[in-house]
Specification:
Layout: E1 2-7, E2 11-18, E3 22-29, E4 32-40, E5 48-56, E6 69-70, E7 80-83, E8 87-95, E9 104-111, E10 123-132, E11 137-139, E12 143-148, E13 152-157, E14 162-170, H1 176-189
């Protein structure tokens, strides 16, 4: 296995030439750590090129990103989505010789203690998301958030792309049912 690690101020990258169909690795950037387990789906008997990067996003951890989020089956009133750690993980796999992309499944875990701006009174939940480039949104379609705590989130995906973790924070005591009613009343009354 040939392995090259690139480290810059805002990202760390990994390029691996590998022939095994399963690869475990990790990347670290500042106090952020990412561990991943990659399983190649394609019938590949030769060498593969695996490219992974873990980089700072352009938005900070506590900045709301609601406009660019598409989480299925979730009413979004009174909710703020924030980045878990401001990091984006990208991964691609190619046949080494013909440079054709290969399909893969991936499990990854992001680790970092989240900021103190989230209090115990806040209701919070973590969502693993991928960048839907055709719609320019973060989406949870096809993603599974397997476990989470205040300092670690584990995700599973059956496709490779750019990934991040969003934290949903609800800080008021309005129930979802009342929130939907208030939203409908606001729409009707306007």
């Amino acid at each position: 296995m040939e392995r090259t690690v690139y480290e810059e101020e805002t990202y760390v990258g990994l390029v691996v030439r590998e022939s095994k169909i399963s690869v475990n690795s990790s990347l670290e950037q500042d106090d952020n750590q990412l561990d991943f387990d990659l399983k190649i789906i394609a019938e590949n008997t030769g060498d593969m090129l695996i490219i992974a990067s873990y980089s700072n996003n352009t938005m900070g951890e506590n900045e709301a990103v609601n406009e660019s989020v598409d989480i299925s089956n979730l009413f979004k009133a009174n909710i703020a989505f924030r980045y878990f750690n401001g990091m984006v993980f990208s991964c691609s796999v190619y046949d080494f010789y013909d440079q054709m992309p290969l399909e893969a499944k991936i499990e990854f875990t992001m680790t970092k203690r989240i900021s103190s701006s989230v209090t115990n009174k806040d209701k919070w939940e973590m969502f693993c998301v991928f960048l839907d480039e055709t719609r320019s949104t973060w989406s949870d379609a096809g993603m599974v958030t397997t476990s989470y705590s205040l300092d670690q989130v584990s995700c599973y995906s059956e496709h490779l792309t750019s990934f991040s973790v969003l934290m949903k924070v609800t800080t008021d005591n309005v129930s979802v049912e009342n929130s939907e009613t208030l939203s409908l009343m606001s729409t009707v009354c306007v």
